[in-house]
Amino acid sequence: MLTIALPKGRLGDKVYDMLAAAGYDCPGYYDKNRKLVFESPENNVRYLLVKPSDVAIYVEHHAADVGIVGKDILLEQGSDVYELLDLKIGKCRMCVAAPEDYVEDKDRTLRVATKYVNVAKEFYGGRNRAIEIIKLNGSIELAPILGLTDVIVDIVETGGTIKENHLKVIEEFKDISARFIANKTSFKFENEIITDMMNKLGEQIK
Ligand code: PRP
After folding, report:
1. What tens digit of pLDDT does each residue of 68-94 get?
2. How many Å apart are CA 197 and CA 127, to the nearest integer?
3. Which atom of ligand 1 lies at the shortest distance from residue 161's CA?
């Protein structure tokens, strides 16, 4: 039986629908309860519902064979897994944003709020820009509004949050989408099953 780590929430539901259409449906997935594990012995799959930021951790440590995770999280965590397929859903951009009237002073250390500390360090490191990072876990857009930082590094999907909070995108530097990943040992020993799943999932990409 193949264990699949799915991100809880909207992306997870979309991915589950693709997997179900590919022949890996699992009774009870949409029942409104708090179960975190669903099994389909007929289809030889077990689903684990985990926090989106934990998917790659489960896969890397072999608690799951495969998983679906945003590229933003893979970049941030530098996970040691195989990235097999771009599912072309959950699309967004990694951006730098700042208050609408912001003008950068290049002589000062740039203060950056983000959930993506490693992504931000790499981005500004490549430009030799001195930065100070304030790590937040959500509602990042508040930081520059309150004067806590100059800019944010965050994902932008519709742009709604940026707009509602009177920020502007200064730069988009990475396209993000959901990726099908596999544990390296699983990919070696369950290669046929995982490859088959990858191909069937690929057929569901619109
Ligand atoms: C993400 C991200 C932005 C928002 C962007 O936050 O950090 O705040 O979505 O989406 P938009 O461009 O469509 O408005 P999320 O909803 O994951 O919540 P969080 O603030 O708890 O991180």
Report:
1. 999 999 999 999 999 999 999 999 999
2. 40
3. 14
